[in-house]
Amino acid sequence: MAPTKAPDSSRRSDRSRRAIHEAALALVGEVGYQRTTIEGIAARAGVGKQTIYRWWPSKAAVLMEAFLGLAGRADEETGPRSDDAAQGIPDTGDLAADLKLVLRATVDELNDPALEAPTRALTAEGIVDAKLGAEFVAKLLDPQLALYVTRLRAAQEAGELRADADPRIALELLIGPLMHRWLLRTLPLTHAYADAIVDYTLGGLTPRP
Amino acid sequence: MAPTKAPDSSRRSDRSRRAIHEAALALVGEVGYQRTTIEGIAARAGVGKQTIYRWWPSKAAVLMEAFLGLAGRADEETGPRSDDAAQGIPDTGDLAADLKLVLRATVDELNDPALEAPTRALTAEGIVDAKLGAEFVAKLLDPQLALYVTRLRAAQEAGELRADADPRIALELLIGPLMHRWLLRTLPLTHAYADAIVDYTLGGLTPRP
Questions:
Q1: Is a pLDDT exceeding 70 seen at residue B128?
Q2: What distance, in Å, lies between the first and last C-alpha atoms of chain B?
Q3: What confidence score (pLDDT) does residue B67 get?
């Protein structure tokens, strides 16, 4: 399971990084972004704060990497993946089925208690702090949205999506309702809801002949 | 313009209430929900803090009423309205046109600099504080969403909306993308975007014969 033998210091670094990520996510979920400090993360991770200052320029950078690490581990747990990042959304030739699979997985992630508090804390901070929000959108959200664009373009080429639909807008019809319901907690976020969003969005709300 | 003559003390109360609302909205926009205090609101409004404690049970209650007052004033400014709250969304018989009108107005409201900071501060707080979030959804958001349900039901009766579509889900396809774009600042929130959301949602993303 470990094809390359890392030197001890590198293994120690990996362990420390992981401990720092976990401490950062736990803390921001518990006390919010504002009250999370480098000192607090260091104490919780059992490392010196100089270790954190040496590796990251800011608290935001630590958290960004912690979320990226989390996304990476979630991918590992759901099985092997190729190096082709664009395969984030499967293409079985059935657009509705593929989108339902991805949106249901998103529902599961959003409902995961371990992720909920830090994700809410960070999203809330980005909503009031434009600079931090822009950074998280650029580094965390946009790469995910690009996967939708790729899948929707393929659907367009296959004639499954209207030729005049802008994939960048179309994806917001799928993601927007999900996030709105989750962020504002208006109603329960379920697989049935994810399926309905896909069916309504693809089929449209006006009657078809 | 003032059909009933209010006694002096009532007029003074109205002035104080308005000053307190404005102070609360300004403060929460500037320093966030957590750091907004009854004392701070009182000082800014030029009233004693006992005045606020006498009229409202909590800081959240002051802000809730301030937002409700704001919504009321926005309605006054856009012209006369009947007592029928359900007429919030016009019914001209053209569903697409009516929805575009309402979503464009929502875009304008969200882009209004005077509303932006307090709305962001309160939304962000509701995202991390489930109790406060639920209160704002119940008192501020749900009554607005009910107007969409009413309009979409009428469209359903007129055959303009699929009979099998749930209006409560359908409205999230319209509101969700707008709020997602505004909250996360992914891309500019424009009238053209509001129009596209209506067209895509009603027509659907898959080709029609």
A1: yes
A2: 56
A3: 86
- DSSP state for residue A84 in the 8-state scheme: -
What domains does chain B contain, in order, with CATH numbers? Answer: 11-67 (1.10.10.60), 82-209 (1.10.357.10)
pLDDT for res B86? 39
Task: Please state, rounded to an integer, the average pLDDT across all residues of chain A.
Answer: 88
Residues in chain A within 8 Å Cβ distance of B183: 123, 127, 183
Helix axis angle for B8-31 and B113-128, nearest 10°, is 70
pLDDT of B81 above 50: no
Inter-chain touch A196–B169, beta carbons under 8 Å: yes
Residue A82 — pLDDT band, cuts 50, 70, 90? very low
CB contact under 8 A, A124 and B125: yes
ipTM of the complex: 0.86
Q: Which long-range contacts (CB under 8 A, 24 or more apart) does A146-152 make?
A: A146/A86, A147/A85, A147/A86, A147/A88, A147/A89, A148/A89, A148/A174, A148/A175, A150/A86, A150/A89, A151/A89, A151/A91, A151/A95, A151/A98, A151/A99
Distances (CA, A) of A78 to A66, A109, A179: 19, 12, 22
Give me the residue from B165, B177, B183 closest to A173, CB to CB: B177
Reduce the DSSP state of residue A33 to 3 states and report it: coil
